[in-house]
Amino acid sequence: MAAIQTVDIPHFATLLVEVDHSQCHVTFNRPKKLNALSTELLQEIIRLSHWLHTCDEIRVVTIAGAGRTFSAGFDLGNLTSATVGESPRTSADLGRLATEALTNVPQLTIAAVHGHCVGGGVVLVGACDLRIATVGATFVIPEVDLGIPLAWGGIPRLVREIGPALTKELVLTCRPFGAQEAKDIGFINRVVEENDLMNHVTELARSLAVKPLFALRATKQQVNAVMEEIAGTGRSANDADSLVYAMRDPESRQAMARYMEQHK
Fold this sequence. Notes:
By secondary structure, this protein is α/β, with parallel strands linked by helices. It has a single domain (15-193, 217-262), classed as 2-enoyl-CoA Hydratase, Chain A, domain 1. Helix content is 44%, strand content 15%. It has eleven helices and nine strands. It has helices at 39-52, 88-92, 94-103, 120-127, 154-162, 164-173, 179-184, 197-209, 213-230, 239-248, 250-262, and strands at 15-20, 23-28, 60-65, 108-113, 116-118, 130-134, 138-140, 177-178, 190-192. Helix 1 runs parallel beside helix 3 (94-103) and helix 3 (94-103) runs parallel beside helix 4 (120-127). The radius of gyration is 18 Å and the shape is globular.
């Protein structure tokens, strides 16, 4: 891939970032950890998003996962620890900040989902403007089984995408759902064959990148503004408090211990 010379790409430890003319291709790059969303990866999503605000040349961003899955969700190894020098609440709020940062980049974003997409990975996919998944992709929101509420602004995002009844069902039951169901309920735009995912995503990105920039960005801004009126994510700043409480609640901690034992 020939990167354009006018864009100075920052170094990332957990993300692969490539720029091809007006397209930016981002890959979660923790394949041995199934692209689990560590605090470092979330911090790098925030840094990537800030950098994208400076890149007028880039019109479309694609987001995929390296290896055999899109993302296994929040890294459970980070769940009970905070970064040195940070309060537990600051650490707990990092996912919301990353999701908001990704939502608010000026470029159009396209999620390319394969394999498993779990918990916080589902929320990040919901933060993207367009979503394509392979026929074998599986989604699951296991937070309640872990003894914690779905955070990161996931509830309002799901409510405005699929409605309140389905949000309650999928979040409360923690049942997996496939790509075709995700499309049927309006969460995914397209379902494609396993080997065709990146071809479809790249072609969609290419077709959008040649359209007039003002119209692209104005459309994204208008749709996002309407969605905020339907179910705003501003109140989600309190999600971190719920996570911190859950980490101290005895029943929640027991549920988390059982889940982690079952999913070693």
